[in-house]
């Protein structure tokens, strides 16, 4: 009797499961979200053209190959110049039959909605279809293209829900990018620390992308979440090569895609506590062994002159954990020979920290050597921390560290050589600025924004630069920007957003008011500096320029003209005849949003990136900028020397610099 009961129970359970899956599939066959885009570009075709015939042929046979059961279709048809390329991607948790059904619907609907357009895109709940007259396979297509929409329901505990979402998306991004050539998709869930909420998510790329391309695409998509879906329980961001979705309920099929569970920090800590006894003894043994090896190498190894030596430099404790990095250590005599004994003919520039010299290594590679002066205010420990920090930051818009030297009382940092010097060298010179057309200036703005986003969100360390300005933006041979001078950078822990400091360092005109007046340091400090930089790049004027008797610097001048509808007065005369006037005005708008007086009103760099890349999103109206001279002129009476401020009876020092000088002070946390 017992066996019969169990058998009946299992049969009933199987039947109910079958009904549930069938119901889900039937629901999936009728997606309720359809988003075509017919304005991507690449021109039009006529109904009698070869392109039209090729398109109809390709789409009518698009899903006929039933051996493709992993949800990605990529075909072309026809001869140049009338070749049609099409790509279809199904959500990673749908079955092959549902996938083909969705794509078949899309192949019929998209040409109808986007009649005579050579390039078109359509997003369903369960699949994406696009076609073009240009090849798309293996190409990260149009990073600026984006759909973003949200579930209007607000999260009960928005802060905890957002933290759980951030943790989940970082894990899904990495796992999706790590997928193979058939699938690049990951799904999972993350719970809040105490409120009991769970957020479910899915991230996916077209599998023809490389791991790095998929990672870049999803980073771009994740950066759009705050702008579209802040404090919402659900949302989606759709790119041409990737997409993501999150909801408070499980929307994907866990029987098709194995979900990942991302534990809250407390659970992770409890797990570590249960295993600490098991691993602590081997860690101590390894640490002692490495220490002995380091002492042995230090005492026994002799460095040959005029040669480059690889050495392991032990870092100080950064952000709560011991990290190690392999950095090239240069012999002092080698650098001396490389720079022709630091000759004046090789000097590239001079700042408050010391001088920078051009050099050439034995292999012909050109380098820039930063030689700190003995009175720069930076000691050996701070110097080592700066080197370790830059070594751990790797991004195409950050200047690349090649090595260092700490020998004979000298402190030298060796960077890649950038032939076009710094942005201020070109931007503020009437003759040289002619080389900076709008396309180049926009490229610089976007590049700096990406570098700051990496600092704030994507690097292993959360970094506040604290001295972003035109002279700290270096330009390579193609005028791509690279952020430099990390001596004033401040490290934050992963969950830290703000701190207070008694020592203020930076450059007047670029420092946010809450930082100068109250020592409040946050990511919004860099956002403020970036806003000033945008306005300088567009106007071609320094932030302390005097425009007329009624304005008090660039921010005041820009704000007055923006409010009066005279935005063209802000634009550099060299750009007045540009065909990109709307884009220029949008960048001015973004710049004014970044320099708002209240730090809370300023956008994050993630939001700034979306604002700069998407022209379809409406921007909020900016409020009054900070540091209009008529209200805070007493703060800026002396912008060329060290100033002081007092707070509650204590003596606090403000270390500042003019636009040509930087005072270096690294404060790791």
From TrEMBL:
Reaction equations catalysed: L-seryl-[protein] + ATP = O-phospho-L-seryl-[protein] + ADP + H(+); L-threonyl-[protein] + ATP = O-phospho-L-threonyl-[protein] + ADP + H(+)
Location of region: Disordered: 638-669
Cellular component terms per the entry's GO annotation: plasma membrane
InterPro entries noted in UniProt: GNK2, GNK2_sf, Kinase-like_dom_sf, Prot_kinase_dom, Protein_kinase_ATP_BS, Ser-Thr/Tyr_kinase_cat_dom, Ser/Thr_kinase_AS
Record carries keyword Lyase: no
Pfam families assigned to the protein according to its UniProt record, in alphabetical order: PK_Tyr_Ser-Thr, Stress-antifung
GO biological process per UniProt: response to oxidative stress
Compositional bias ranges of the Polar residues kind: 654-669
Domain Protein kinase residue range list: 342-618
Keywords: ATP-binding, Glycoprotein, Kinase, Membrane, Nucleotide-binding, Phosphoprotein, Receptor, Repeat, Serine/threonine-protein kinase, Signal, Transferase, Transmembrane, Transmembrane helix
TM segment ranges: 276-299
Domain of life: Eukaryota
Residues binding ATP, per UniProt: 370
SUPFAM superfamilies in UniProt: Protein kinase-like (PK-like)
Signal peptide span: 1-26
One term of GO molecular function: protein serine/threonine kinase activity
Localisation per UniProt entry: Membrane
Location of the Gnk2-homologous domain: 33-136, 143-251
Topology of the protein relative to the lipid bilayer: Single-pass membrane protein
Annotated protein name in UniProt: Cysteine-rich receptor-like protein kinase
Source organism per UniProt: Acacia crassicarpa (northern wattle)
